[in-house]
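Thread title: Can someone regenerate the structure for this chain?

I was given the following input by a collaborator and told the matching structure tokens would be attached. They weren't. Posting the sequence so someone can regenerate them.
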Amino acid sequence: MSEHVSKAVEGETVPDGGVEPARARQLWHLLEPLHAVLYYAPEAFEEAAALGFGIAERWPSYFPFRAAPLGAVGSERVASAFYSFNPRMVAEHIDSAWKVSAPEEVLKARLRAIDRAYRSIPNVRVDSPELAEAAALARRAAEAVNTAGRPLAAANAELPWPEAPHLQLWHAATILREHRGDGHLAALLVAGLDPVESLVSFAAIGAASVERFESRGWSPEEWAAARERLTARGLVHEDGTATEAGRDLRRAVEEHTDQLAVAPWQSLGLPAVNRLTELLGDYWVAVLSSGLLPSESTLGIGKV
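Best answer:
Regenerated them for you:
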């Protein structure tokens, strides 16, 4: 297990044997790379290309891969669920996606992609008893999620569970990250941050570079207008950095997100959460060491 992970476990005190919201963030940090392999692995691009999607960049496969559990829905519903993407960008890829391949075929392709990708990553050891144990624990947490008001979590939770343990681990990671993501959108709405403002305010606290957030498709004019709105609210300085009030608001958003994400882990219980954390450490290291994932993302993992 990595030093980072073990310190987080050893240094935490949890009252009354419960699982605190901060552990939901830690488990997200550990599970997110296991999910995100789908959007970067060469095997995923190969499967997407076989369906007929473009692979010159990742977006033509990202949108159908992530949206397929929703069914053949239009871009407005996908933009609503994905939130931070410019609706024009969503429409560019979703309006034609289901003409290229039906959602049920995309769902099969993404499982094939993960199967192949996990098998290609050194030290993942898909047939190990440790991975099977981690998959079983993660599945218990995923099956405990309350999907009310969480469209992406509900759509993934409704899918049948794969048989192989490594695919169960990925499926559980996907349900849990979408459950957290749906809750995060609720926290942003409570904070009064619209899609582009959510990115501008996140960039303002240094979660990622402005250039990285440009991948969400907002024009310089839209970005500047959002910054002006946040400046008027006293949340962002004119140079784009966060004011103290802006930092406080983003801190509140992240804390609210953790609170909304902790229930499945509380259902699992602290001993099982500690065991899963221990088991996931090696796979977290293996995926990050593979070089598949970018060094900087718009999720702010490790920075907020």
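Residues 3-189+254-289 form one domain.
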